[in-house]
# Entry
Amino acid sequence: MTTMEIIYNPFEKIAGVKAFLLGGLGMLAASALAAVNGTHFTGMFSAIYTVSTGWYVPFFELMLIWVPLTVLCALYCQFFGSTHYRLVDIIGTIAFSMIPYLVISVGGFIRLLPLGSEIQLLLAVIFVYLSLVWSLMLIFHALRVSGNLKEQKLWVGFIFCTMISQLIYMLFINKIYLFIL
# Structure
């Protein structure tokens, strides 16, 4: 497996429990780094660099992205996918698709570089948006490979699951902050 295949579509080789463990470790590492440098995951499509918090705040933010997305993808595959998919593969590949949030967390250290604020902002935007595009690409391939979806069902499922996950995040994040802060 080439480096490009690992970045673009690792799910031909990595799925199930292995993908879940790697994704889970990535989310824990992202949470720890985010807590140190003040990264907050403000939804599936955005992140901000602000004040540092306890490790559990970014962890809950990531869980509020991952859990609804995983449930929605599993339900979509159950009702609209082929009969040849395994729930453990959906859970694992969606967890693995969260690895780019680790890169976003590393991007929080850009503020420590001796650069002008405009350059720091530009670098932060590049880190965040390239990582989010990478994550979306991984989610797409997770549905394609693990959910055994093709063509129109794949695109509809991808758009539906990501958009509804973002909506769930937006509806519940303030309520969760009340409990964890």
